[in-house]
What does this fold into?
Amino acid sequence: MNAQRRTVIAAMLAAGLPIPAAFADDKLVLGFAQVGAESEWRTANTESIKSAAKDAGIELKFSDAQQKQENQIKAIRAFIAQKVDVIGFSPVVESGWGTVLREAKAAKIPVILSDRAVDEKDDTLWVTFMGSDFVEEGRKAGRWLLENYKGQGDVAIVELQGTVGSAPAIDRKKGFEEIIKAQPRYKIIRSQTGDFTRAKGKEVMEAFLKAEGKKINVLYAHNDDMAIGAIQAIEEAGMKPGKDITIISIDGVKGAFEAMIAGKLNVSVECSPLLGPQLMQAAKDLKAGKTLPKRIVTKESIFPMEVAAKELPNRKY
Ligand code: GZL
It folds into this structure.
């Protein structure tokens, strides 16, 4: 539905007039600018969005930015030019969105933030932000460590951070540090980005092992893909992942459950990518003139290796 038609419908709704079916029935068009295809999580998120659009009868214009902000901005500008009804996107990083979001606002196209947030102060630039509480995910990881780690004395932690400047990387670090600072024997001795990918996670873990070797007691990875890459590096260094080095990661993708069943990963904090149905419902509510909550938080759990085998058959991503 184009902008003019939407304005007229909103005015008719405000005046309490019935909308003639033919007038309101044209297909809702949603433009979605995706981060990329960097991880199992992202692949599942894309699949959820595409299948939910199909089920909802929504026309989806989809772009993959290959983890580049300039590509996402280009895609959003194209959606504005095409006069889509709603724009959705998962910002690859938190900053640098003000200009393009003001362009969408000027074009009277509502924007939904899905998965990740932006650090813009003017929150009229988006209608709602739906996704996980990344700080809480970091806290869950920290709490699990303090409650379950059996080693005595100082605990040397290495950290594989997500994409530099992204909301999940910033917030997962913040939440984890907030919890472990309660017990000073837990120390992060090395911390570097693995950009949420297996390949980079392996490469950085190789460097950590070269520098610190058997001193490393714990790996905290901001996502399962980097943890799985790190597991390969740990095994190639002749150490036992999940035993010599306790490994904590986030997402809860199938690969993590398989690693936990193999005894190579100790725990994965759930971060659900299945945001498609919520996103489509929000787009439909906007078309119907409803107001949305500013924040929709995804409900999530935590899966230690002991429950992995039982839980795997229930996993949807
Ligand atoms: C989190 C999402 C992160 C995942 C990674 O909601 O933005 O990006 O944790 C993904 O696996 O690459």
Residues 38-39, 41-42, 115-116, 131-132, 168, 196, 223, 225, 250-251, 271 surround beta-D-galactofuranose (CB under 6 Å). Residues 134-271 form a domain with the Rossmann fold fold (CATH 3.40.50.2300). The two ends are 32 Å apart (CA to CA). DSSP finds twelve helices and twelve strands in the chain.
